[in-house]
Q: What sequence folds into this?
């Protein structure tokens, strides 16, 4: 009798295990689809060269903040010529601003400081400011960024 | 004659409810120090009621959110009062949660068989903080916008689950109008549901596992009416305090969110000040891992306590020292953040 009882419980165990695995797969598939629903599609972005001004215009001012296709950048004359810095702080993504008097970039969120060449000199930022490539064609200056 | 006996044995609904909630409460719960669990519950009820009221006017869309909060604050009849009550109740709720956790920690009330109470409580604590964060993000002023940005980037820095979590929260690679809608959904639907489930679980755990036992033997009193009245008294007292606080400190609203410029005075509310200061002064990766490790130790402290007790440490004293230094660190970081 004990053997038969054992068989019954084994069958019971197998059937509930089967059910559990099926239920797990079903709910898992649902959960996965739900998560996919919540993740919006990433729009493919390509590098584009965007005209920001002429050499004459840009040589007039010291620092020029601008926003192009969602990228916030700042054109600045550095020791190595004109550079397009990303204004996104390399620490936690706040916006840096150019402090003309101190000749430094300041991030007000966590007191990050960068020098005029974008090098991180104080506070939490782990690396220098990101840069966008600058292309000069004749008189025109273009910035190469993903748009 | 028979009918009368039946009537006597049949209980009224009121008696049935009282029987259901009835329980013997140890006498140490007479002290306010041990009643700090019901306090955040009362405050949560106020926050929930005023929160539901505000959803009738709030517009979770980036271009209109700020204006709608402003309208609640200054145009809608008693809007400032409802928003003020919401803010005050949340701030007091987090404050009393801190006190409640501190009391449980120092008296080691999480000891076996009470570990589950502690674990659910930790879940409640972190969910409440998440409610705080999502809540002040909805105002869509400068603190909201840059707070969102910073917190999402912090989430992204976490190992493994960080980047997908940040992506899900933001609804994309950057903070956008989808982000605001997601935070709104979290703040008004998902997190409150989770909070209510956890509160229910916490109370059931306390009922099933029993109240923490104090070292010395003591008397007991009934939950109803003695203890229930005491909680009612606390609730009335809290209401008076809250209304006064709203009158003295009516709710304010910062500058509107400006994605093109960070204001120089963006700082989170007081309960995040210590963490904010910590990530400002410590190098990035160690700072974030410090927070993660601290949270893990905090969450599983009952097991650490048991492990150390078995090896002969007097945890009562150790906890007192840890608790005191935790308060001191929190106070120093917070004050430092306010002064500098």
A:
């Amino acid at each position: 009798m004990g053997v038969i009882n054992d068989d019954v419980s084994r069958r019971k165990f197998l059937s509930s295990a089967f059910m559990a695995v099926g239920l797990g797969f079903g709910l898992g598939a649902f959960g996965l689809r739900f998560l996919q629903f919540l993740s919006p599609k990433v729009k493919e972005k390509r590098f584009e060269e965007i005209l920001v001004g002429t050499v004459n215009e840009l040589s007039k001012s010291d620092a020029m903040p601008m926003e192009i296709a969602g990228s916030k950048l700042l054109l600045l004359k550095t020791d190595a010529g004109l550079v397009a810095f990303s204004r996104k702080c390399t620490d936690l993504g706040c916006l840096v601003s150019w402090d003309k008097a101190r000749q430094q970039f300041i991030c007000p969120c966590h007191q990050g400081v960068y020098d005029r060449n974008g090098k991180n000199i104080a506070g939490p930022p782990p690396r220098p400011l990101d840069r966008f490539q600058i292309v000069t064609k004749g008189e025109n200056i273009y910035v190469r960024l993903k748009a | 004659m028979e009918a009368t006996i039946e009537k006597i044995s049949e209980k009224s609904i009121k008696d049935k409810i009282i029987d259901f909630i009835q329980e013997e409460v140890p006498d140490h719960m007479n002290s306010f120090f041990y009643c700090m669990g019901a306090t955040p519950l009362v405050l949560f009820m106020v926050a929930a009621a005023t929160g539901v009221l505000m959803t009738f006017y709030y517009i979770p869309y980036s271009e209109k959110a700020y204006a709608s909060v402003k309208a609640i604050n200054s145009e809608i009849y008693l809007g400032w009062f409802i928003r003020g009550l919401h803010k005050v109740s949340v701030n007091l709720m987090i404050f009393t949660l801190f006190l409640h956790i501190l009391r449980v920690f120092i008296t080691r009330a999480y000891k076996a068989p009470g570990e589950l109470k502690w674990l659910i409580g930790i879940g409640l604590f972190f969910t409440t903080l998440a409610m705080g964060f999502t809540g002040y993000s909805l105002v869509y002023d400068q603190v909201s916008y840059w707070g969102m940005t910073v917190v999402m980037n912090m989430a992204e820095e976490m190992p493994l689950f960080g980047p997908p979590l940040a992506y899900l929260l933001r609804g994309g690679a950057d903070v956008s109008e989808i982000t605001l809608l997601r935070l709104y959904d979290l703040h008004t639907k998902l997190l409150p549901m989770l909070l209510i489930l956890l509160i229910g679980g916490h109370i059931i755990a306390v009922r099933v596992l029993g109240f923490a036992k104090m070292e010395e033997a003591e008397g007991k009193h009934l939950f109803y009416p003695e203890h229930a009245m005491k909680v009612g008294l606390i609730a009335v007292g809290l209401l008076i305090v809250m209304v006064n606080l709203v009158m003295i400190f009516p709710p304010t609203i910062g500058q509107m969110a400006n994605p093109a410029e960070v204001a120089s005075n963006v700082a989170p509310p007081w309960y995040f000040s210590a963490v904010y200061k910590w990530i400002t002064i410590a190098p990035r990766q160690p700072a974030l891992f410090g927070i993660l490790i601290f949270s893990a130790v905090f969450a599983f402290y009952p097991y650490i306590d048991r492990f150390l007790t078995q090896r002969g440490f007097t945890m009562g004293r150790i906890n007192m020292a840890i608790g005191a230094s935790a308060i001191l660190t929190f106070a120093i970081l917070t004050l430092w953040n306010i002064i500098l």
Chain A has a mean pLDDT of 85. The longest strand of chain A covers residues 47-54.
